[in-house]
């Protein structure tokens, strides 16, 4: 993304900086959301949900 911004001459430097900050910010939340989704899909059952004989 940074290379694309650097090669685009019609965007001024201040706007390029703001766009990169926005892209990084957005990427952070995309990764965080992906991690949260992955964690909720692979949560092992709690110890009370296992099928152990009663003692």
From TrEMBL:
Keyword Transport: yes
Signal peptide: none
InterPro entries found in the cross-reference section: GlbO/GLB3-like (IPR044203), Globin/Proto (IPR012292)
Keywords assigned: Oxygen transport, Transport
UniProt GO molecular function: heme binding; oxygen binding; oxygen carrier activity
Protein name per UniProt: 14-3-3 domain-containing protein
Organism: Aegilops tauschii subsp. strangulata
